[in-house]
Amino acid sequence: MDRTDCETLTIEYLCTLGVLREEAYVKLNKPPKNRPIYKWNQDTWVKFDSDIDNMTLCHLCFESYQYISIDYDEVASNSKPPAALCGLINLGNTCFMNSVFQCLNNIPKFTQSILELHDEQNAPIICEYKNLIKKMCSRKYEAIRPSSLLCNIQDSLPRYKTYRQQDAQEFMNHFLHLIHAELSMKNTIITNIFYGQIRSTVKCLGCAQAETNNEPFTFLPLPITNYNQRCVRYIKADGEQRLVSLEVDSSVITVGELVDCFLKQHEPKLTRKRIQVVQLVNHSVETVYDSGRSLRYIPEKELALIECSETTTRERHIWCQFIHHSTNTAFRPPIILTCPDENCSYLHLSEQIDQVLGHLCSITNAPMSTCDVYWLNRKRKPSKLNITTNPDLPYISGVHIEMTTKWVDIYKQHYRINHSNDNSRLANLLTDFFREDYLDDDYHCEKCSKLTVARHKSDLCLPLPHVLIIQLKRFTYDVNSNQKIDTYISFPLYDLDLDEYIVKDNTDIPEKNLQTKYDLVAVSNHTGGLTSGHYTAYSKNPQDGNWYSFDDDVVRQLNSDNNVVTKNAYILVYVQRTS
Ligand SMILES: [Zn+2]
């Protein structure tokens, strides 16, 4: 909690919570609202709803110099450093467990609900989990040993006594069920937060009779097919950029062969010479790859294909970079311009530059005049390009196009949303999962009173679960072979929309349950093979909004949100949007 941004409120110890709220709003000069009040209790905010407004502060154990908040979210987002950045020490092949805890801890509603539970005598796992969360939030430790929690889990489930590598999804499932069981009620925080319902419909093709069945679920297990798919960034000469997926077999090992694949699948009219393959780091070109370069050590996320025109012997390529005016850093990948080797003038570039300015302005709705164009001389010193005087550019080594924060933000926003939606392979897996299909086995139809052929379809029922956990089924076990599938699956960080998978015959659902969009909060990753491997977690800290990597006791911030999506992703944790 950041205590620098506090107001002092003097109030009678015997006054009520309702009076405290009124005074607090007056003090902060805000219009009064009937919202909960939060009380700082050692290491966390405790919520007091307005239905206990009549109770006195004395009864509610408020202390002198008590910290309170009327807007928890605001306080939480201001507090630095983030509270729950604590590693978990590996107790002997327990990385699967650490990964699961780091995923669950960053589901704000779940953590808050656990902390609000009363200590029950017959609930040792909840009790230890609560202690673990409190310790992790206390900011006193860089890493702690989750030993007593593990001991209690082992008492209930002896399979975890072996200290062998276990499946993180199975463990997460077991752990949630252990908590549910300790609460010994029908509806618990587990059912409220994690349970959804799937309606499964089987339709007999003989008589068209349909049989439906609703089943609760906590995980969506999505099968993955085993082919090599690569996802690369493609930047066109007119400035347009998109992620393209390439189906690549094992014979493709060099950059040149990858380009051939790309041309065949996406741009059959272009030739190899028209594509430059580069490594992009923070939107700047780090390396230009030649076609013989092996793909093996090139990180896929940094690989980009850039379209250019073919040059004659009297022409050459120069880079056109896109610079954010205030930070002087690139806000999108560069494009390649073609100019004469000597005696270049603005006329040689005008068409190419106008095209890309047109792209920037059509995406952002910015007026053309907001883009400043600079040319760089031999020493890469920028000078403003005065278009009306049609200047000579004696030796031009590059072009910069600058935009200000307002338009850069709109531009980046556009690409964030588009990239997360249009190219999500996760969406394809979900579509497959909910697609109508023939039932594998014969179906005994009551009406036809014989074995018939039937079709099967699954749909999501409303209300949707608060937390959606997706398992990418990378581990397959069958008679012939057990394997781990390393296929890269892209998935969105924001705006995963479940609308199209919802059963459509429900009309009496209250408005507030109709939110169908989800944002990602955590990923459990698995590296390595079927028999030996390692689990880590990527989680989004609810307080500072940054993504962190949790590798047992080592916690570090991810350089970029783009690094969250990897081929190691195994469990995806999405949280339903509140508005
Ligand atoms: Zn039938």
Automatic annotation (TrEMBL):
GO biological process: protein deubiquitination; proteolysis
Keywords: Hydrolase, Protease, Thiol protease, Ubl conjugation pathway
Domain USP stretches: 86-577
The protein's enzyme class: hydrolase
Annotated catalysed reactions: Thiol-dependent hydrolysis of ester, thioester, amide, peptide and isopeptide bonds formed by the C-terminal Gly of ubiquitin (a 76-residue protein attached to proteins as an intracellular targeting signal)
GO molecular function: cysteine-type deubiquitinase activity
Domain of life, per lineage: Eukaryota
Keyword match NAD: no
UniProt-listed Pfam families: UCH (PF00443)
Keyword Transferase: no
Chain coiled-coil ranges: none
InterPro entries recorded: Papain-like_cys_pep_sf, Peptidase_C19_UCH, Ub_carboxyl-term_hydrolase, USP, USP_CS
Annotated EC: 3.4.19.12
Family the UniProt entry places it in: Belongs to the peptidase C19 family.
PANTHER family assigned: UBIQUITIN CARBOXYL-TERMINAL HYDROLASE
Name of this protein: Ubiquitin carboxyl-terminal hydrolase
